[in-house]
Automatic annotation (TrEMBL):
Keyword Oxidoreductase set for record: no
SUPFAM superfamilies for the chain: N-terminal nucleophile aminohydrolases (Ntn hydrolases), SIS domain
Full protein name: Glutamine--fructose-6-phosphate aminotransferase [isomerizing]
Originating gene: glmS
Active site residues per record: 2, 601
A GO molecular-function descriptor: carbohydrate derivative binding
Glutamine amidotransferase type-2 domain sequence ranges: 2-215
Catalytic reaction annotation: D-fructose 6-phosphate + L-glutamine = D-glucosamine 6-phosphate + L-glutamate
Protein task: Catalyzes the first step in hexosamine metabolism, converting fructose-6P into glucosamine-6P using glutamine as a nitrogen source.
Length: 606
């Protein structure tokens, strides 16, 4: 998730842009850049790393221009290099762009630009050259013509040295806000960097383009018709704006899940062949067919995402799959060879145990690939390929959107592997259809938040809780238990439903409530029997059930109903109520939700 800030007005743009970039650093940064219109030309400076490095590089430059654009990059396409940093330019530096989003068809568009010598690996550079191709004096028209050919998402700002009185902004899938000042305007990815100057803003909607001068904002819809947009007043402070109005980063990231889930699957599935194509794996189809075993390694929440992946690989790809907690893998004596595919999974890409496991697996000759969120991170660089999960920066210590995006990528891989083996077209198409419905079902599930908050309130005096699930929902139970314990500090444990009678049942009593996942799937009746065992011991029961399952009411003190989905995709939906339950419980108990005690966001030590 990159950050954009642009300014056109009466003050020197540079200090405004640098301050705005600092306010946007929470969106993630691996590089940054600015372009200022100065003395008739666009002066561009880009650096890798923090904004301070960019600021240092700019300090001796006399850039007094009153119009400019700036960007902090969270890499999606292309590594972390200065060349890949924004702004990107065309027309010999007269045209420049900053962009947040993913241009899905940038490779096809590149075929229209065979005469261009590209200097970066980014999709954004293709877009600015496409705009340059159509530019013949009317800047907005050139942007509109180019965007008509684009598939994907963008929030972008374009400037041209021959147009010192206008900036062009456009939005499709990545937010853009225009701050309204006195003969000056600000354009940004969100309100955070604008609030220091004005709380009067115009929100662009998808498909809209704005032509912004010092005095006016002209907005146009997708049919290029002029439209009137309301100026709205924001009553957030800057801290709230960083969280886009949410009380905590964790809650914002829980609500990010439908959007970032679509970023994870966008352009990676095929609705004709009922398969997926994750090119980053760097294996030929025959090399994939030669894999006879898969080992997933990760830690904490990531290892629970891996468990869901295990079920998917066995069910769809028909390959033996196992999950190893990285800190165990690196010290046990794993029997692996060059037909074993080891997937190292990590949000941060810097977890010491997972990195050590990667090195051990490579030493033993395994095929090692990464499933990572942070582009250019150590694990991403030390594996011989893999896939980025596109969850955007995850700032809360408790992982939420990274977990569901990891599962999205694991299901895509299981589908790709399965369709290269015995998985039928019909089943592949069913999986693809189910994946395409997930984001909407996530949104429906998020609407349960207030109801879940009431349930959390009811159980906020308990000091223990047990989570139960069967099959792929055991991984959900483990994740729900970890979420609760790590941010509310309530002791919680998770067990497979069938394990209760082998010991854990002894714990149950009215003071030890149980949160059971009893959604409609092939293990429903088995789970129902386990819940009856629990009820017979007098424990309170919270049930996660499938909408329409009235029988659940007979068994539970509280029922939370979720939309039905394909069993293998259930973790993508069923985990959300458990994330919200833990979140509300931590807030009710007055805990530091985003920074729980004793924990770090990235465990870079053993
Ligand atoms: C989960 O909420 C925790 N933040 C923790 O378990 C985390 O998932 C684990 O440390 C792995 O981190 P990684 O994905 O960055 O490797």
């Amino acid at each position: 998730m990159c950050g954009i800030i642009a300014y056109i007005g009466k003050e020197p743009a540079l200090p405004i842009l640098l301050r705005g970039l600092r306010r946007l650093e929470y969106r993630g940064y691996d590089s940054a850049g600015v372009a200022i219109l100065n003395n008739g030309g666009l002066n561009r400076v880009k650096t890798m790393g923090k904004i301070d490095i960019l600021s240092e590089k700019l300090k001796d430059q006399e850039l007094l221009g009153t119009m400019g654009i700036a960007h902090t990059r969270w890499a999606t396409h292309g590594g972390v290099t200065e060349a890949n940093a924004h702004p990107h330019s065309a027309l010999n530096g007269k045209l420049m762009i900053v962009h947040n989003g993913i241009i899905e068809n940038y490779r096809e568009l590149k075929n229209q630009l065979l005469d261009v010598s590209f200097v970066s690996q980014t999709d954004t550079e293709v877009l600015v050259h496409l705009i340059g191709k159509y530019y013949s004096g009317d800047l907005r028209q050139a942007v509109e013509t180019a965007l008509a050919q684009v598939r994907g998402t963008y929030g972008l700002v374009v400037t041209h040295a021959d147009h010192p009185d206008k900036l062009i902004a456009a939005r499709m899938g990545s937010p853009l806000v225009i701050g309204v000042g006195e003969n000056e305007h600000y354009i940004a990815s969100d309100a955070t960097p604008i609030l220091a100057y004005t709380n009067q803003v115009v929100f662009l909607d998808d498909g809209e383009i704005a032509e912004v001068s010092r005095e006016t904002i002209k907005t146009f819809n997708v049919r290029h018709e002029h439209i009137q947009k309301r100026v709205e007043k924001i009553d957030w402070d800057e801290a709230q704006a960083e969280k886009q109005g949410f009380a905590h980063f964790m809650l914002k990231e829980i609500y990010d899940q439908p959007t970032v889930f679509q970023d994870a699957i966008r352009g990676r599935y095929n609705i004709i062949d009922g398969t997926a194509r994750l090119g980053g794996i760097n294996l030929t189809d025959n090399q994939i067919r030669d894999i006879n075993r898969v080992i997933f390694i990760g830690c904490g929440t990531t290892s629970y995402a891996a468990m869901a992946g295990k079920y998917a690989f066995e069910r769809l790809a028909g390959i033996p799959a196992e999950v190893d907690v990285a800190s165990e893998f690196r010290y046990r004596d794993p029997v692996i060879d060059n037909h074993t595919l080891v997937f190292a999974i990590s949000q941060s890409g810097e977890t010491a145990d997972t990195l050590a496991a990667v090195r051990e697996a490579k030493r033993r000759g395994a095929v090692v690939r990464g499933i990572v969120n942070a582009v250019g991170s150590t694990i991403a660089r030390e594996t011989d390929g893999g896939t980025y999960i596109h969850a955007g920066p995850e700032l809360a210590v408790a992982s939420t959107k990274a977990y569901t995006n990891m599962i999205a990528v694991l299901i895509l891989y299981a589908l790709q592997f399965g369709r290269l083996r015995r998985l039928s077209l019909a089943t592949g198409l069913r999986v693809v259809d189910a994946l395409r419905e997930v984001a909407q079902k996530m949104k429906e599930t998020l609407e349960l938040s207030e109801e879940i908050k009431k349930v959390a309130q009811k159980y906020s005096d308990y000091h223990n809780m047990m989570f139960l699930g069967r099959g792929i929902n055991f991984s959900v139970a483990l994740e729900g238990s970890l979420k609760l314990k790590e941010i509310s500090y309530i002791h919680s444990e998770a067990f497979p439903g069938g394990e209760m009678k082998h010991g854990p049942l002894a714990l149950l009593c009215p003071e030890f409530p149980v949160f059971a996942i009893m959604t409609k799937n092939q293990l429903y009746e088995k789970m129902r029997s386990n819940v009856e065992e629990v009820r017979a011991r007098g424990a309170k029961v919270i049930l996660l059930a499938t909408k329409g399952d009235d029988r659940a009411l007979e068994l539970a003190d509280d029922v939370i109903y979720v939309p039905e989905t394909m069993e293998l995709l259930e973790p993508l939906i069923n985990t959300i109520p458990l994330q919200l339950f833990a979140y509300h419980m931590a807030v009710i108990l007055g805990k530091d939700v985003d920074r729980p005690r004793n924990l770090a966001k990235s465990v870079t030590v053993e």
